[in-house]
Design goal:
The structure holds 2 protein chains of 2 kinds.
Chain A (H helix, E strand, L loop, with lengths): L17 H36 L1 H8 L4 H27 L2 H31 L16 H35 L4 H32 L3
Helix pairs in contact in A: 1-2, 1-5, 1-6, 2-5, 3-4, 3-6, 4-5, 5-6
Chain B lengths: L5 H4 L21 H5 L4 H29 L10 H36 L8 H24 L12 H5 L4 H28 L12 H33 L12 H35 L6 H14 L15 H29 L8 H24 L1 H7 L3 H31 L5 H28 L13 H31 L48
Helix pairs in contact in B: 3-4, 3-5, 3-16, 4-7, 4-8, 4-9, 4-14, 5-7, 7-8, 8-9, 8-10, 9-11, 9-12, 9-14, 10-11, 11-12, 12-14, 12-15, 14-15, 15-16
Classes of the chains: A mainly alpha, B mainly alpha.
C-alpha cells in the first residue's frame, strides 16, 4: 500500500471553516454546470423541435451520422468517467501515485474520444456533408436537413471544445497533483474537477441519443 | 467565532471613527493593489469606474440620437450614422451599463458586508470576472472605433447575419464575453449567499437587497448561457455560413427571436430587481421604519425571477405566433404585475407614518416609485394583445422601457450611490447639490420620455429618423428634456468626484440606518469586520416611534 498521506484542504483566509470552504467550492461547480447545461439546452431544443416538426427529413439525415463511431465514443467517455471516479476515490484514500495514474488514464481516454471524433469529422468531410466549407452538398437540400446537420456540427464541436478544455485542465491538474503535499492541501480540487469531467460525459450522453439514436 | 461585543449586536450604535485601523481605501495605494486586488470592495469600485465610463459613452450616443430627431427630414445625420448611433446607445447601455450596474458595483461592495462575510466565496474568480468584463468591453470599443454596428441592440437575424455591412462579429464577441462575466458574478453571489452568511444571519434576516441579488444571480446563471449560445450561432452563421437563422441557409429567423428573448426578457429583471432591492433599503432607512411585509417583498423577488422566464413570447405577438401561444404569454405577462405591485404597495406602506427624511437618496426613491408605476402600467398595455398590435415597435415601447430602465434602474442606482457613498468613500456628498441633481433628473426624464408615449400612440415607429412633420413638436420637447436630463447626470458626476477630496468626513452610520454594513467604519476595514458579527436581531429593526415635532 501507499505511504500514509494526510488528506485534506488548506483553509483560505476568508472562510470560517474547512467545511464551509469545501461546500462553497462544490456548490460553485454545480452552479457552473447548471449554466453549461443551459448553454447546450438551446441546441438540444432546436434538434428536438426539428425532430417533431420534420420527422421524415431528420430521420433521413441521421442515417448519415456515423452511429458506430458515436457509440464507441460513448463507451470511451463512460470508461473515462470510471477512471475519474477512481482518481477521486484514491485521492480520498491518499494514494497519490494511483490517483495520478487514474488521471492520466482519464486524459488518454479523453484524447481518444477527440481522435475518434476527428476521424468522424473527416468522414463527414469526405461524404460532402460540410456545406459551410464551400463543398458541394451531398444530402437532401431541404431546410430541415440542412438545419439538423448544422446543429449536429455546432453541438458536437461545442462539446469537443469542452473536452479539449477539460483534457488541458486535467493535464495541468495532474502535474500539480503529482507534487508532494498536494493531497494535504488541495484534495478537493480533484473532486471538483471530477464533477466537471462527469458533466462533459453526461452532456455527450444527451447529445448521442438526441442526434444519433432517436428514430434511427 | 468569538461572541460579538455590544456594538455588533446593535447596528444602530455608531462605531467611534477616530483612531480607526487602516481601512480598505488607505491600506495600500499602489496601482497594483487596485488592479489586482481580490478585495470585493475594491473590485466593486473598479466596476463603478468602468460602468460610469460606459454610461457616459452611451449617454453621448443618446444625445446624438435626440439631436438627430429634432428635424423631421433626417438631415442632421445620414441614415447609416443614425442606425449606428442608436445601436451604440442600446448595446452600451444594456450590456455595459445597466446589466452590471447595481449587481457588479453595489452587489460586490455590499453583499459580503450585508451578510457579515469577509469576502465573496471566490475572490479570485471575482477579479477574473472583472477582467472578462474589460475584455468584452474592449471588443465593443474596437467595434466603435473601426466603424460601429447598425443592427440595433437586439441583433435580429437574418439582418445581422447576412445583410448588415457593419462590424457585427466583434460586437457579438464583446457581448458574448461580457455574458461570461455576468455568469461568474452570479455564480459567486449564489455561493456567497448560500455559504458565507455569518452566524445567526438566517435567510429571513437578510436585507431585501440581498434577496434581490439572489434572484438576479439566479437569472444570470439560468438565462445568460442561452444568449451566449444564440449569439455564438449568429457568429457561426455570419462567419462560416452555418445556417441556423437565415431561411436561405436552412434556418429559422423566429428561432433567433425565441432564443434571444429567452435571455433578454429575464435580463430586464437583471436590471430591475437589484434596483428594487436598493429602493427597499432606501425607503426603510429614510422612513426609519421596518419594511412592511418583509417576507412578501422577499418572496416577490423570487416570484418575479421565476415568472420572468415564462413571458419571452410577448416580444413576438405580431411575428407569427399562434393565437393560443400569444394568449398564454399575454396572461403570464399580466401575472408579472402581481409581484411588482406587491413591491410598490409595500414600499408605500413602509413610508406611511414613517419619520420621513427627504435626503437625496429618498428623493430618488420617491421618484423611482412613481416612474416605476407608470412604466409598469404601460407594460400592461403592451401585454394586451389587441393594443400591442397597434403599439408594437412604436415610441410607446421606447417610452415604456425607458420608464423602467431609466426611471427605475437608473434612479435606484443613483439613489443607492448617494446612500452608500459615505460607506464607499468615507466622505459625505453635498446635500443641497444632491437634491438639485435629483430634481433635475426627475424633471428632465419626464420631459424626455412622456412625449414619447404620445408619439408612439400616434404611430411614430421606433428606430426611424425621418418622420412626418406633425410629430416635430413632441420630438423637440423630448430632445429638450434630454438636455435637462444630461445636465442632471452631469451634476452628481461633478459633485461626487469633488466630495472625494473636499466632502465632509462621513461617520460610520450617517443615516442612522440598520444593517450590518453600517456597523463597520466608513470606509470599512480591509476584512470588513474586526470580529465576525453575530446576528441575533431581525432585519430593519427600526423603532417605530412617532415623528419628532418642531
Amino acid at each position: 500500500m501507499a505511504e500514509a498521506v494526510l488528506v485534506g484542504i488548506e483553509r483560505a483566509e476568508h472562510f470560517e471553516s474547512i467545511d464551509q470552504q469545501r461546500e462553497a467550492a462544490s456548490l460553485g461547480m454545480w452552479a457552473w454546470l447548471l449554466t453549461e447545461l443551459l448553454l447546450f439546452s438551446g441546441l438540444f431544443l432546436i434538434a428536438l423541435i426539428l425532430r417533431i416538426q420534420h420527422p421524415a427529413a431528420v430521420t433521413l439525415a441521421t442515417t448519415h451520422l456515423k452511429f458506430w463511431i458515436g457509440a464507441a465514443n460513448t463507451a470511451v467517455l463512460i470508461c473515462s468517467s470510471f477512471t475519474m471516479s477512481g482518481a477521486i476515490g484514491l485521492s480520498r484514500l491518499g494514494w497519490q501515485r494511483g490517483m495520478v495514474g487514474c488521471m492520466l488514464a482519464t486524459a488518454t481516454l479523453g484524447t481518444l474520444f477527440l481522435g475518434l471524433k476527428g476521424f468522424e469529422y473527416y468522414q463527414d468531410y469526405a461524404e460532402h456533408m460540410m456545406r459551410f466549407l464551400g463543398q458541394p452538398y451531398a444530402l437532401a437540400a431541404d431546410q430541415a436537413t440542412r438545419l439538423f446537420i448544422d446543429v449536429y456540427f455546432i453541438t458536437t464541436a461545442l462539446h469537443g471544445l469542452h473536452l479539449i478544455t477539460g483534457v488541458s485542465i486535467l493535464l495541468v491538474l495532474t502535474v500539480m497533483a503529482g507534487r508532494p503535499n498536494f493531497l494535504a492541501q488541495h484534495q478537493n480540487r480533484i473532486e471538483i474537477y471530477g464533477l466537471y469531467w462527469h458533466f462533459i460525459d453526461l452532456i455527450w450522453i444527451i447529445v448521442f441519443p438526441v442526434l444519433y439514436v432517436l428514430n434511427r | 467565532m468569538s461572541p460579538s461585543d455590544a456594538v455588533m449586536r446593535d447596528p444602530g450604535t455608531a462605531r467611534p471613527t477616530i483612531d480607526r485601523p487602516a481601512d480598505y481605501l488607505h491600506e495600500e495605494h499602489t496601482l497594483r493593489s487596485w488592479f489586482f486586488s481580490t478585495d470585493h470592495k475594491r473590485i466593486g469600485l473598479l466596476y463603478l469606474a468602468s460602468i460610469t465610463f460606459f454610461f457616459v459613452l452611451g449617454a453621448i450616443a443618446a444625445c446624438l440620437v435626440r439631436l438627430a430627431l429634432i428635424v423631421p427630414d433626417g438631415t442632421i445625420f445620414s441614415s447609416d450614422t443614425y442606425n449606428k448611433l442608436f445601436t451604440m446607445h442600446g448595446v452600451i447601455m444594456i450590456w455595459f451599463f445597466l446589466i452590471p450596474s447595481i449587481p457588479a458595483t453595489f452587489g460586490n461592495f455590499l453583499l459580503p458586508l450585508m451578510i457579515g462575510a469577509k469576502d465573496v466565496a471566490f475572490p479570485h474568480l471575482n477579479l477574473a470576472s472583472f477582467y472578462i468584463f474589460i475584455t468584452g468591453a474592449l471588443f465593443t470599443l474596437i467595434t466603435l472605433v473601426i466603424g460601429g454596428v447598425d443592427t440595433g441592440w437586439t441583433f435580429y437575424a437574418p439582418f445581422s447575419t447576412t445583410f448588415s455591412n457593419t462590424y457585427v462579429i466583434p460586437a457579438l464577441i464583446g457581448v458574448i464575453i461580457v455574458g461570461f462575466s455576468s455568469i461568474l458574478t452570479g455564480l459567486n453571489f449564489v455561493v456567497t449567499i448560500h455559504k458565507m452568511r455569518c452566524p445567526g444571519m438566517t435567510w429571513f434576516r437578510m436585507p431585501i437587497f440581498v434577496w434581490t441579488l439572489y434572484a438576479t444571480s439566479l437569472i444570470f446563471l439560468l438565462a445568460t448561457p442561452v444568449i451566449t449560445i444564440a449569439l455564438i450561432l449568429l457568429v457561426m452563421e455570419r462567419a462560416f455560413g452555418i445556417g441556423v437563422f437565415d431561411p436561405r441557409l436552412g434556418g429559422d429567423p423566429v428561432l433567433f427571436e425565441h432564443l434571444f428573448w429567452f435571455y433578454s426578457h429575464p435580463a430586464v429583471y437583471i436590471m430591475v430587481l437589484p434596483g428594487m432591492g436598493v429602493i427597499t433599503e432606501l425607503v426603510a432607512a429614510f422612513s426609519q421604519k421596518k419594511v412592511f411585509g418583509y417576507r412578501f417583498v422577499a418572496y416577490a423577488s423570487i416570484a418575479l425571477a421565476s415568472v420572468t422566464f415564462l413571458v419571452w413570447g410577448h416580444h413576438m405577438f405580431v411575428n407569427g405566433e399562434s393565437q393560443l401561444a400569444a394568449t398564454v404569454y399575454s396572461l403570464l405577462s399580466f401575472a408579472v404585475a402581481v409581484p411588482s405591485a406587491v413591491k410598490v404597495y409595500n414600499w408605500t406602506a413602509t413610508i406611511h407614518k414613517g419619520s420621513i427624511h427627504l435626503d437625496t437618496p429618498m428623493l430618488y426613491a420617491m421618484g423611482y416609485i412613481g416612474l416605476f408605476v407608470l412604466g409598469g402600467l404601460t407594460g400592461l398595455f403592451l401585454a394586451t394583445l389587441a393594443i400591442d398590435a397597434h403599439l408594437h415597435d412604436t415610441y410607446f415601447v421606447v417610452a415604456h422601457f425607458h420608464y423602467i430602465m431609466v426611471g427605475g434602474t437608473m434612479l435606484a442606482f443613483l439613489g443607492g450611490l448617494h446612500y452608500w457613498w459615505p460607506k464607499f468613500t468615507g466622505r459625505m456628498y453635498p446635500e443641497a447639490f444632491g437634491r438639485v441633481g435629483a430634481g433635475l433628473i426627475f424633471i428632465g426624464f419626464n420631459v424626455t420620455f412622456f412625449p414619447q408615449f404620445i408619439l408612439g400612440y400616434l404611430g411614430m415607429p421606433r428606430r426611424y429618423h425621418v418622420y412626418p412633420p406633425e410629430f416635430q413638436l413632441l420630438n423637440i420637447m423630448s430632445s429638450a428634456g434630454a438636455t435637462i436630463l444630461a445636465a442632471g447626470y452631469f451634476f452628481p458626476m461633478v459633485y461626487l468626484i469633488w466630495s472625494l477630496w473636499y466632502g465632509k468626513k462621513a461617520p460610520a452610520n450617517p443615516w442612522n440606518a440598520k444593517g450590518l454594513e453600517w456597523t463597520t467604519s466608513s470606509p470599512p476595514p480591509t476584512h470588513n469586520f474586526l470580529n465576525t458579527p453575530l446576528v441575533d436581531f431581525e432585519p430593519y429593526g427600526y423603532e417605530n416611534k412617532a415623528p419628532e415635532i418642531g
